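Quick note —
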Amino acid sequence: MFPEDAELNPGGFQPGGQTPYSGRPGGHRPSPPSCIKCAHYRVSWDPVRPHACNVFEIKTRLMPAVEVYNNAGGNCPAFHPKAANQRNQAN
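Predicted structure written out below.
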């Protein structure tokens, strides 16, 4: 790291250094499940918050699983895959 970069990087993070996700393949945190494939997902008609979850009773501009992941720090515990007939009706 160059001395002039110290202002941009006050924590001293070194590229290639250890991160909380370094032990995972690719070093990235796992992605949340797809709400579109969940039985509890629904579309809200609110243009500001178009995505909704029946279990958590939330409407959000992001996918509900992303909100759960950001707030709880883990994947959505309520994720339940849609049955085959539900997937066909959604298309």
